[in-house]
Structure formats: structure tokens, C-alpha cells
């Protein structure tokens, strides 16, 4: 679909308009200057009279000479500067664009004009401003065109988060820690995480762990010196259980020695995503260091699917390792499922849910397969047969009703770009077993310090809430060459954020 937008001279409009266009068309080209033979022309006009803006738009379908019109008027608080004015303009233009596209295509976007990853943040913001639940609902619907159903989902999630973490809005002076271990037994086809097949890499694993221990010591020292508490720790990657039981043991010992007050950390999670990495020895190590929560990820219970996506483990192994972990005392197990894996439709997903019922993990994360640019699956899109938008929606609805019937509640969600059907990934949990780390990462209420390969840090200013991102190198070689430099950079950012005078 080729779309020419007229009346918008500012280049900054292109990105939001492209993102909204992506909600309707898998392939599109948009322009605000010129485009030969466009399929649609959308003419915008706006009037602003600080603090109100009125935007009109007229869509013309060039092939069928059909026209659709819409307008949106909004009173804002007075704008302070040009940047703020543009933000409001972007809002009204996006709003009216979605309105006319809904008329033209007949497709109602459940998330309205939202294209961002974390819709629940909007509701948290309104609650923090003291806005009542009813008014927040009305505003989300009117301002962003979100459907009632999705607003109810947001409310339910935010409610669960505040029940699980009642001091969520006061945790900005604590931090959480993410530790990235970049190795897996083999690389899955849809994976874009920093994950390297571990076989034959022992040299690289050793050097990597040396760097990671260094980072843990230095960051731990800084936290102790500045009296900053840790809320949660999360080991991800890769697969953190792909290293040996001895290496895991030394890593957790380092955590206990270096980090402040580990006994009072609210939650420590280790992803043991690939069942083929789980052994009784490793489970013993996890227990020894009081690791509360692990993840064992089936993704699907259909053997051919696992083979097609390169997971190299069997369905039986997932079930067997789940029971092993359970029998060895692991009582908070998460399982990840993916909707829309190649060759899977409603029937296959129903089978996966019926197998899940036999295990009843404490939490269940339901992902929608997304075609991320860097994955093998995206590069070879034609090779993989995936379900269409409607079937994906049906499977999401089935996941939602199945979890409800089985006593799970949704407690976090995030949306991804290029996700099939423009839906969302939802974390469900038996009430009281929600992952606090997942809440912290989704709602961006506090700093998360990333250590290890490919680990992204997200520094949240405790006063302004402004977010600064920082990423460690993705491949073990450059991590090994530069970890000291990256640790120093993170400590400098932490000093600035938490007001530590220079030279201290
Ligand atoms: S197990 Fe996870 S991190 Fe490892 S390759 Fe597969 S998707 Fe990527």
C-alpha cells in the first residue's frame, strides 16, 4: 500500500504515521513529500490556538475515487515550547488518521492509536496523577481510541501489579539487576537474543564468566557504598542454565558475596528455558542459593514444531524436567508458550493448553510470534507457514479464557513491533506468584542494571523518571575485550542519577 500524506511538512510526522500504517498493512510505503501513483492520499489540515488543536483529514482512495473525512479537536494544557506543541500535534494527527482508517478499512484497532510497547504505563501515570479509575477509562478511550476490552485488561493488570508490589511507585531509589548469559545448547530459528551455541566454546565461556564476575563485584561494591537496595535479580540470556553446575555455583556465590543484603532481595529468577540444560545437579545448586523462581519453556507441545524452530529437545523432556524441578522443591515455575509458531493453528494451540493443564505451572507467559528483523525465521519467511491475523486473534482469546478458567490472572503485558495481528504478549500467573522483575521491567519505575553479554541497562532518573538506555556488547568476544570500560560507564551514569559527587 502506497500512501501520500499532504499538509504535513515536518519530517517528524513520518515515523508515527508509518507505525500506524503498519497496524493496517504488512507492506507499505508512506511519504509526506511525493510518491508516484499512491493508492491513498490523505490531506491534513490543522488549526491550533494554544492550548487547543483541531485536525481535519480527508482520505481519497485513488482507485475507486472514494473519500472519507474525519476531525479531532482537543483542549490541552497550555504548551510551553515547540517540542511540546509538536507532541500534541502528533497526537491529534495520529488520532484522526486512525479514525479515518477505521472507517476506510473497517478494521478496529483494539489498541487504538497506540503503537508503543507498554500501554499499561499510561494507566499507571493516570493513577499517579490521582485520576479515578472511571475517568482514566474514559480518557484512555477518548484520547487513544483503545477499546473497552483492552482498557479492562489494562486495569486488571495494573491492579494485580499494585497488589503484588504495593510500593511500586516508591521503588525508584532501589534497583533491579539483570544478568545476561549468552549461551544456549543450539540457536532457535526465531531468536534475536544474544545466544551462542555453547558446544566447543569453553574458552569463550570461561573468559565471559571472568568478565561477569568482575561486573558483579564492581556494581555490588557501588551499591553497598551508596546504600542502594536491590529489589529483584533476573538471570536471562541465552539460557543461564547452559553453563555447568560448578559455574552456576560460583556465580551465585559471587552474587551473595558482592551484592548487598541478598537475603532481602524480593525475588531471584533464573531462566532455565531450554529443558535440555536442566540436570539434578543444577537444580541442587539453585536450591542451595535459594533461587525462588525458574522458567522452563515448552513454547509448544508439538514435536514437529520444536524441530522446525530448531529447539532440539523433545516434548517429553520438557514434561520430565518440569516434574524433576517440582520434585526437587521448585515451587515457582514459569512456562513460556508461543502462539503462531510455524504450522500451528487453533487446534495445535488447544493441544498445547491441554498439556499445560497437566502441569499447572505457577505462571504462564503467552507470546505471539513476532517476525523480528534479525531472526532466521524472518530472513526465510517463505519457508515458514504461519497462521493469519484472525486465527492468531482467536488463539489469543483462547489463551485468555483458558487461563481465566484455570485460575490465572494477567499481570503484565507488552506489545511488539511486527507482531502478527498486532496483538500483545501477556504474562499470566496464579495470584500471588507474579514475577516482580517482570513488573519492574515493564512499568519502568526503577533502574535496571544489566550485567553480562548483551545485557541492556535502563537507568530511570529517581526524580524526573527520565530513561537512559545503555547496552553491553552482544558478542562474547567484544564483551571480554571491553567489560571494564562498560562497567565504568555504568557506574558513572549511576553516580549522576543517584547524586553521588564526582571523584567520590
Ligand atoms: S533458548 Fe531462548 S535465548 Fe536460546 S536460542 Fe532459543 S530463544 Fe534464543
Care to describe what's here?
This protein is α/β, with parallel strands linked by helices and 504 residues long. Among the domains are: 112-164; 170-360 and 447-494, pyruvate-formate lyase- activating enzyme (Alpha-Beta Horseshoe), CATH 3.80.30. The protein has helices at 14-24, 82-105, 120-128, 133-144, 148-164, 202-225, 245-258, 280-288, 303-308, 315-327, 346-359, 376-379, 389-405, 436-443, 476-497; strands spanning 2-6, 29-31, 40-49, 52-61, 66-75, 175-181, 183-184, 196-197, 230-237, 267-271, 293-295, 333-339, 363-368, 409-415, 424-429, 447-452, 456-460, 467-471. Residues 184, 187-188, 191, 193, 195, 237-239, 273-274 line the site of iron/sulfur cluster.
Relative strand content: 15-25%
Radius of gyration: 24 Å
Mean pLDDT: 92
What is the CATH topology assignment of the domain at 170-360 and 447-494?
A: pyruvate-formate lyase- activating enzyme
The count of DSSP E runs of length 2 or more, i.e. the number of strands, is 18
The CATH level-2 architecture of the domain at 170-360 and 447-494 is identified as Alpha-Beta Horseshoe
Strand order of the largest sheet: 14-15-13-12-11-10-9-6-16
Main β sheet profile? 9 strands, mixed
Low-confidence runs of at least 5 consecutive residues:
none
Could you tell me how far the N terminus lies from the C terminus, measured between alpha carbons in angstroms? 57 Å
Structural class based on helices, strands and sheet pairing: alpha/beta
Question: Bound small molecules, which ones?
Answer: iron/sulfur cluster
The level 1 CATH classification of the domain at 170-360 and 447-494 is: Alpha Beta
Helix content: 40-55%
Shape: globular
Number of helices: 15
Amino acid at each position: 500500500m502506497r500512501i501520500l500524506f499532504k499538509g504535513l511538512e515536518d519530517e517528524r510526522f513520518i515515523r508515527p504515521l508509518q507505525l500506524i500504517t503498519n497496524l493496517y498493512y504488512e507492506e507499505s510505503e508512506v511519504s509526506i513529500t511525493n510518491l508516484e501513483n499512491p493508492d491513498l492520499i490523505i490531506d491534513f489540515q490543522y488549526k491550533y490556538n494554544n492550548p487547543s488543536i483541531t485536525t481535519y483529514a480527508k482520505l481519497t482512495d485513488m482507485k475507486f475515487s472514494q473519500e472519507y473525512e474525519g476531525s479531532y479537536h482537543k483542549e490541552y494544557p497550555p504548551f510551553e515550547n515547540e517540542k511540546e506543541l509538536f507532541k500534541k500535534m502528533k497526537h491529534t494527527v495520529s488520532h484522526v488518521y486512525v479514525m479515518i482508517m477505521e472507517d476506510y478499512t473497517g478494521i478496529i484497532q483494539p489498541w487504538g492509536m497506540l503503537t508503543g510497547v507498554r500501554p499499561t504505563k499510561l494507566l499507571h501515570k493516570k493513577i499517579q496523577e490521582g485520576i479515578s479509575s472511571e475517568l482514566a477509562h474514559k480518557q484512555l478511550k477518548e484520547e487513544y481510541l483503545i477499546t473497552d476490552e483492552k482498557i479492562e485488561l489494562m486495569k486488571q493488570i495494573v491492579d494485580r501489579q499494585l497488589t503484588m508490589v504495593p510500593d511500586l511507585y516508591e521503588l525508584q531509589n532501589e534497583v533491579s539487576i539483570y544478568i545476561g548469559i549468552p549461551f544456549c545448547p543450539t540457536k532457535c530459528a526465531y531468536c534475536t537474543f544474544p545466544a551462542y551455541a555453547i558446544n566447543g566454546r569453553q574458552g569463550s565461556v570461561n573468559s565471559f564468566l571472568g568478565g561477569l564476575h568482575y561486573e558483579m563485584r564492581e556494581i555490588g561494591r557501588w551499591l553497598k557504598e551508596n546504600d542502594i537496595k536491590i529489589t529483584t535479580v533476573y538471570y536471562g540470556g541465552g539460557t543461564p542454565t547452559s553453563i555447568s553446575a560448578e559455574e552456576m555455583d560460583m556465580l551465585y556465590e559471587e552474587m551473595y558475596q558482592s551484592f548487598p543484603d541478598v537475603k532481602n532481595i524480593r525475588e531471584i529468577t533464573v531462566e532455565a528455558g531450554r529443558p535440555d540444560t536442566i540436570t539434578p545437579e543444577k537444580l541442587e545448586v539453585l536450591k542451595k542459593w535459594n533461587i525462588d523462581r525458574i522458567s522452563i519453556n515448552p513454547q509448544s507441545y508439538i514435536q514437529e514444531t520444536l524441530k522446525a524452530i530448531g529447539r532440539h529437545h523433545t516434548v517429553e523432556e520438557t514434561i520430565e524436567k518440569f516434574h524433576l524441578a517440582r520434585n526437587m522443591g521448585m515451587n515457582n515455575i514459569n512456562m513460556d508458550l508461543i502462539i503462531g509458531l510455524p504450522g500451528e493453528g487453533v487446534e495445535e494451540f488447544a493441544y498445547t493448553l491441554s498439556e499445560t493443564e497437566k502441569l499447572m505451572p505457577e505462571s504462564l507467559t503467552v507470546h505471539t510470534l513476532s517476525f523480528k528483523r534479525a531472526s532466521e525465521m524472518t530472513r526465510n519467511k517463505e519457508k515458514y507457514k504461519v497462521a493469519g491475523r484472525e486465527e492468531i486473534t482467536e488463539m489469543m482469546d483462547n489463551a485468555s479464557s483458558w487461563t481465566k478458567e484455570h485460575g490465572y490472572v494477567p499481570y503484565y503485558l507488552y506489545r511488539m513491533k511486527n507482531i502478527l495481528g498486532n496483538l500483545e504478549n501477556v504474562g499470566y500467573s496464579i495470584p500471588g506468584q507474579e514475577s516482580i522483575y517482570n513488573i519492574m521491567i515493564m512499568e519502568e519505575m526503577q533502574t535496571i542494571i544489566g550485567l553480562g553479554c548483551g545485557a541492556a541497562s535502563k537507568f530511570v532518573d529517581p526524580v524526573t523518571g527520565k530513561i537512559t538506555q545503555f547496552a553491553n556488547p552482544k558478542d562474547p568476544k567484544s564483551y571480554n575485550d571491553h567489560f571494564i570500560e562498560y562497567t565504568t560507564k555504568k557506574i558513572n551514569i549511576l553516580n549522576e542519577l543517584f547524586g553521588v559527587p564526582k571523584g567520590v
